[in-house]
Amino acid sequence: MSCGPKGSEEPSIPACSVCGRATELFELPGRIEKYCLECSADVATSILLATEIDVAKISGQDAEDLTLEFAELSSRMLERAQSAHG
Q: What is the pTM of this model?
């Protein structure tokens, strides 16, 4: 009986939606994608940062530090995704 890709007897191992690693995956509330532990932490942090940036801008506060942190986090996630897929 075939469990994985056509002609394979090994079950398919799902991969992280960001980095593509086949490892234990986690779900985040409101997301359909699944992430490895490292990527799930970064995605959750990016969601919180985006929310805090929006709140700061709406209330007229300076969001520069939050924006810089968001950019660094995004860059790190992009590097991880590119190294896994390239």
A: 0.78
